[in-house]
Amino acid sequence: MFRSLRGKKSPKPSRKELKQLQKKVPKLIWEAENNPSKIGNFASCGLEELSGAIVSACKRKTTLLLYDNSLEVLNGIISRLPQLVVLDLHKNLLHTLPKEIGCLKQLKILNLEHNCLDRLPVELGQLQLLDTLNIQDNGLVVLPECVLQLKSLRTLNLRNNALAQLPSTIAQLVLLETLELEGNPLDNIPADTLAQGTAAVIKLCCGRAGTPYHPPSHYAGDVLNSISTSSADALLHYRQEEEVRVARMMESTADRERRRLEAQSAAMAAVKEQEARQQQLLQQQREQRATLAQQLQEQESSQTAHRMQLNVSCCNTLATLSLGMPSKVLHIPTQTQTHTHPGALVIIGWSLSGLSTRT
Fold this sequence. Notes:
Layout: H1 15-22, H2 25-34, E1 39-41, H3 52-57, E2 63-65, E3 86-88, E4 109-111, E5 132-134, E6 155-157, E7 178-180, H4 191-196, H5 198-209, H6 223-227, H7 232-323, H8 344-358
Parallel strand pairs: 1-2, 2-3, 3-4, 4-5, 5-6, 6-7
């Protein structure tokens, strides 16, 4: 069923080894933040505590893998991940769990194998959706009452603990289909009953508790092996999948950056083209204004010459009428017409008037 780790527990890594392993943590945090996968993988990276950065990076993850580290205490900030469905803590140094574990209401699979647990918090009993609990290779002397409150439990692995008694109240777990008890010094369960497997043990406990026995439906209890990637082949496959996902994500990022640069270049080219069109339009407008100014100047010169010609004509007419002389007497040459002031008519009129008087 579950992976077995018999024998002595693995020694705690040296400080130098931990420092070397912890160098992977920033990269794993970046992957968790940017990878759309629902799995947050922080296994085998020398963790000694669950940091806020890891919790923040896993806010959208439903599976958190923290196995094969050096966790002695699980921080209460685990309560910030109420969406977790799978929590894998096997092969750490945990002595107990925080009471905040009861906040993980969606949790269905909890792997605590190969730790130093000798007790469990009562809040664990609040996980009413939990159907798989692995406490193999720990130091439980008595089965905690909170385990008996897990009404959805289907798989319970208690191998290699120090249990001397199996309470008959375990029959309350009516959905329990897989119960692993090997490696415990049980004195209230006959060896031949243990050898017959889960059905025989549950039937015996039901008889002692006076509750009806319902045969198990052979639920697939080996779910942790596929999810926690505990085997070398599965771990390698998982790593390869992660690398492919990261490579695709990086490629997608590069494509987006390339498209952004192309769009930026196109926009700059459009701006330059528009500026060139505006400059051309301004040049055309300047040329049109210059042409218009020249036309206005020519028109004004023509009008001035016309006015002067009219003035001379008027002067000749007045002189002819006043003196009875031919108009040629006061003829002003054409070349001097442009210098005649408009007030010349008044002066000429005054002179003609004086001339008439003397006559």
